[in-house]
Design a protein that fits this description.
Elements: E1 4-10, H1 15-24, E2 31-38, H2 44-51, E3 56-58, H3 67-80, E4 85-88, H4 97-102, E5 107-111, H5 123-130, E6 134-141, E7 151-158, H6 165-188, E8 192-195, E9 198-201
Parallel strand pairs: 1-2, 1-4, 2-3, 4-5
Antiparallel strand pairs: 5-6, 6-7, 8-9
The protein binds 5-O-phosphono-beta-D-ribofuranosylamine.
Length: 204
């Protein structure tokens, strides 16, 4: 079986990254995580990557004249590891035209809400303030917008009356850690069919 090569872009904690690595190391996995790239030097996710024995790079946007040049650099890192699929996991930047065109249809993101509700920052806080009774997480293809690309899969969680942002985030995060590796496996199994905004997942 050909193994798919995954690169993870992150800016922070890296718990989804670690969950993806765990899944990649389980029996029967169809992908490997080749590298982690962070736009932030102090991202705990980079230290996690090094502990897990995965090449970890800090790509500093401030060292480049513009976003295109920064993304060209990121693309070179990804190409060096023969990246097939780019997974954003807490990557706090909009993806620009350079990355989007180089990896067209091959960039995923996970968002801690049931899109299209509550895109952008502080999704869990937005959900709580709105008073929804159900929230969850979404894995979607990335386009030029903020959390606007075609939705691949979602998992729901209940919102409790006494939830804080912390308790709700934790409940959602547990589902994120299951959903993201599953979607990546479906991608490499060739089961995702995209028709416009609609993504179908064919049966095993
Ligand atoms: C997750 O909640 C993810 O859905 C959002 O950013 C957070 C990243 O967490 N995009 P982690 O860095 O994976 O722990």
């Amino acid at each position: 079986m050909k193994m798919g090569n995954v690169a993870v872009l992150l800016s922070g904690r890296g718990s989804n990254f670690a969950a993806i690595v765990r899944a990649s190391r389980s029996a029967g996995a169809n992908f490997t995580v080749r590298l982690a790239v962070s736009d932030r030097k102090d991202a705990p996710g980079l230290a996690k990557a090094r502990r897990l024995g995965i090449p970890a790079f800090h790509a500093d946007p401030k060292q480049f004249p513009d976003k295109a040049a920064y993304e060209e650099h990121v693309c070179a890192l990804l190409a060096a590891e023969k990246t097939d699929l780019v997974c954003l996991a807490g990557y706090m930047r909009l993806v620009g035209p350079v990355l989007l065109s180089r990896f067209a249809g091959r960039i995923l993101n996970i968002h801690p809400a049931l899109l299209p509700s509550f895109p952008g920052l502080d999704a869990q806080g937005q959900a709580l303030r709105h008073g929804v009774k159900v929230s969850g997480c979404t894995v979607h293809f990335v386009d030029a917008g903020t959390d606007t690309g075609p939705i691949i899969a979602q998992r729901a969680v209940a919102v409790h009356g006494d939830d804080s942002e912390e308790t709700l985030s934790q409940r959602i995060l547990r589902q994120e850690h299951r959903l993201y590796p599953w979607v990546i496996a479906q991608f490499f199994a060739g089961r995702l069919q995209v028709r416009g905004r609609s993504v179908m997942i064919s049966d095993e």
